[in-house]
Amino acid sequence: MVPRPVLAVVLALTSALAVPATAQEAKRRWDELCQLRKDKLDIVLPQAMRENGIDMWIVAGREGHNDPNAMLLGDGYIGDVGYYVFTDRGGGRIERAAFGIGGAAFDQCPLYDLRPAPSEMAAFVQTRQPNKIGINVASEIGSADGLSHSLYEKLRETLGPALSARMVSAEKLVSDFRGRHTALGVAAFAKAGEYSRTIVERALSNEVIRPGHTTTGDVAWWMMEQLHKEGLGNSFGLPSIYILGPGPRGPVSGDHVIQPGDLITVDWGVNYLTAYTDMKRMAYVLKPGENAPPAGVQRAYDKGQLIRGMILDQIRPGVTAGDALAAVNRKVAATPGFVLGKYDDPSADPKMTDVVIGSHSVGDLGHGSGPSMADFNPVRMTYTLRPGNLLSVELFVYTVVPEWGTRKIKIPLEDNGVVTDSGLQWAYPPNSRILLVK
């Protein structure tokens, strides 16, 4: 037995050592975040502003009301009203000014050339005489719609009628700025993906699930606890966990007790620094004597994998997201046994497998701001796919599982990758099988 005085010293030393270890991880993440921001402003911002013909971008905020882009721009504390102002004055770099924004963390990641007072805003803009001033008002993309009505009116009053007349929507600029990712941004996203898949695959195992006792809600909260332990955020709140079959879909992340024979799916996402994922996994709970899902369940899953391959074949830079989706839809419609369907509203013909594709932008949010191969993002479908865009390859097939009757079962697949010159490359190992729970 260790003597008590010695044990006390050991415990004291262990506690003392634990604090620097935690601080080291916090500092490591801070350094990574700072470099992510620098790369965004140095590399992506000049492209986004020049391609959209905007020579000044003004992002306004006030205490208690940060713009959705503030996290990427350095955050900082705003006491009353503050402005991040970016001006294209030629050369390889965009001039960066922060009006009324500060704080210790903001100062320790120096991103801005100038730190004027908000009272100098009008003279600053007047001196630079921009032709088009981008402001964050948008018709569709929420991350580009952060300018409140009162801040809009204050900005108009500050700039005066002549300069205010040059204000235009920065919706496409924001989409390009947020939707394109540098090497470090892709690396952070891959790390978020590894957290995502590791946690969800542990959740869909006997480490967490005890058939006949564990509820879908228990699994969801176990996953949330892992995020808490790792110091991570999430993309959509509580993970969506529900039963695909054999019976009707039950309550999401609720009190359904997981039973042998259940086919379970999880839909969720992890936030690490500036990166957000969106993925799904499914698992089958084996009945006594089984060592694999029913053959009909496996065939249904394989149909989903076939459609995923069709989507991957069409993702390449230089085409609009909408054109890529249209090409996939034509291929699906021409494949015997498949029909384009409606989400959660499959056709009555039991011989046909319904397909719904919603491969949306991801990365800056779980449902991201960039080009989107999904008809629920009509504006983003008109945007061109570029290297560095992140996509969530998401699809649903609805098909009959003969062992479970005539009702069509939904099989969802979703994983995330990065657009490259050669097509889409997965950011982490994607879903390749139905997980098994004993």
TrEMBL record:
Keywords: Signal. InterPro entries: Creatinase/aminopeptidase-like (IPR036005), Pept_M24 (IPR000994), Peptidase_M24B (IPR050659). The keyword ATP-binding does not apply. Gene3D superfamilies: Creatinase/methionine aminopeptidase superfamily. The keyword Repressor does not apply. Residues 189-421 form the Peptidase M24 domain. It comes from the Bacteria. Residues 1-23 form the signal peptide. This is Metallopeptidase family M24. It comes from Sphingomonas dokdonensis. The lineage of its organism: Bacteria, Pseudomonadati, Pseudomonadota, Alphaproteobacteria, Sphingomonadales.
